[in-house]
Amino acid sequence: MLDLALFAFLIAFVAIGFRRPFVWVLAYLYVDILAPGKMGWTLMPSIQPSLLTFIAAFAGWLLTDPKHGSRFTLRQGIMLALLLYCMWTTGNADFPEFAATKWEWVWKALFFAIFLPLTITTRTRLESALLVMVLTVGAIIISAGIKVVLGGGGYENDLFFVNDNSGLYESSTLATVAVCIIPIVLWFNKYGTVFLPDWRVKLFSAGLIFACLLMPVGTEARTGLVCIAVLLVLALRDVKRRLTFIVAGATLGLVALPFLPASFYERMSTLSSADGDESASTRVAVWEWTIDYVADNPTGGGFDAFRGNKFTYKMPVREKQGNTEAVEYQEVTDEARAYHSAVFEMLGEQGYPGLALWLWLHALGLWQMERLRRRWRKRMKLGEAEGREWISPLATALQYSQIVYLVGSLFQGIAYQPFVLMIVGLQCALWSYCKRIDSHEARERRAMRAAANPIPAGDAVTAG
Amino acid sequence: MIDYFALALTHALILLALVRNVGRADLDHEDELDDGPKAERKRADKPGGARGDA
User: Fold this and answer.
1) Is A184 helix (H, G, I), strand (E, B) or coil?
2) CA-CA distances (angstroms) from residue B41 to A44, A222, B49?
3) Interface test with B, best of A10, A19, A135 (most B CBs within 10 A)
4) For A56-95, how does the pLDDT look when each residue is reduced to its tens digit (9 = 90+)?
5) Shortest alpha-carbon distance between residue B7 and chain A (Å)
6) How far is CA B40 from CA A332, A385, B27, in A?
7) Rounded to an integer, what distance in angstroms lies between the CA atom of residue A396 and that of residue A187?
8) Phi, psi (5° rounding) for residue A276?
9) Best interface-test mutation with B: which of A68, A126, A162, A435 has the largest number of B CBs within 10 A?
């Protein structure tokens, strides 16, 4: 039944695209985030929705899109360089088979992030892409959120449609992405034009944000809690009454505490002490191994190079005997431990050049969004942004999403997370859209100047 | 049941958004921005280009 319903939905999606081929780009966003191919059993896997929509999106743009306003930005160039570099390291990888498996999805995610801004040439397209992304990831979050409220959840429990730890269906990744989308949902509450912000939109948004906040609780992903804290600190930049915000936030947090499950407290309490937790101990050991590894291999070891690691470390094991607690240090040997950090993932797999490109990509994004935010806010105050009041808040929302991701990525190997690369693509699109406004206005100014100082007709005759 | 509810709600909203968007003229280009092909823009940019043509 679900199989058939998803199939019918996808067919409807593709059919609508025949009227406006841009819809196929949205179809790819939907398929890549939700992975309906993994949810069906018979029809969906056989038609390979990801490949189908990928081809449709690209061909539709290439053949039918007017492409007016499509521009290639510097950040797309950085992604292209990263893509080519990854291709090279895959060819020289330490573990060619594993590297090829990861390359299969990484190249698609990077390629689509480079391609996406070329298709987003209008405000409506930008909004539609964001809306489809938020609603699609919202499906996973709402379902998981309701299960958490009804008492389900817990670390490594089945909360999702697909429980194979892939893509967004990995609990820590979803917790991070859930917090990432909160600023975007808030933007829709004020500036949405597809669904005008009325009480229904506000009600849905409130429910969705609540579900997003529940993700770190439901999945017991400690990174998610750190992400929420980061978002609250960022929000202080924009709220008018900061003290009220802090007091209200603290009160809400305190009120929520009794409702949290005991297992959540236990897991979150390990945040402050890394020594008693194997997850934290291995992370530090892997990071040290990575630094040593790139000292010998500065260009990285290709995807999944972590499989070559092996290390022994001492981990404290606490044992309770009556009222006393004995701490015994045991030697633990680990091998092929994942990076658990996007920074070290890039460093180990792509070496210094790859890490530099990745950091440049994100640093430039933060700077560009900050510039747009300040510039358009100033223009709004001067009354020069009529009809474009949405730009500064959107730049802010996209920047906050990226910051939340970057903080989350310090503790997870999500350097090429496709959802985040889509956000990066939309940032490029917003940047180039604003550049177009600038050049349009410059043209208008030139035309006005020319109209104000016309060349005298007599001069024109003598000149001729 | 919960899965079906979440999927039905979000998919209905996506479909509604698509139907609304398809009818919008500003989906593919914005009149306010000069969206003409590059050659046209260059011609308009030339000082006196448009007047010269006229």
Assistant:
1) helix
2) 46, 53, 10
3) A135
4) 999 999 998 888 888 899 999 999 999 999 999 999 999 9
5) 6
6) 69, 26, 21
7) 9
8) -90, 10
9) A68
Whether B40 and chain A come into contact, CB under 8 Å, resolves to no
Task: Kindly determine whether residue A136 and residue B10, on different chains, have CB atoms separated by under 8 Å.
Answer: yes
For chain A, say whether B24 makes contact (Cβ under 8 Å): yes
Beta carbon pairs, A and B, within 8 Å: 109
pTM: 0.88
What does the alpha-carbon distance between residue A263 and residue A247 come to, in Å, rounded to a whole number? 27
Token pair of A310 as six digits: 């092996």
- CA-based nearest distance A20→chain B, Å: 6
Q: Where are the alpha helices (DSSP H) in A257-341?
A: 262-269, 278-296
Nearest to A213 by CA among A184, A257, A182: A182
A173: how many CB neighbours lie within 10 A of its CB?
26
Q: What is the pLDDT of residues A239-259, one digit of tens each?
A: 888 888 888 888 887 777 776
Tell me the pLDDT tens digit for each residue of B1-54.
888 899 999 999 999 999 999 988 888 888 777 555 554 555 555 554 444 333
Residue A325: CB atoms within 10 A of its CB come to 9
Q: Give the whole-angstrom CA distance, residue A220 versus residue A175.
A: 9
Q: Which two tokens stand for residue A461?
A: 């005759």
Q: A17 versus A44: which is more confidently predicted? A: A17
Chain B partners of A450 at a C-beta cutoff of 8 Å? Answer: 47-48
Task: Return the closest-CA partner of residue A267 out of A280, A255, A256.
Answer: A280
Which residue of B lies nearest to A3 if distances are taken between CA atoms?
B4
**Both structure tokens of A31:** 């398929």
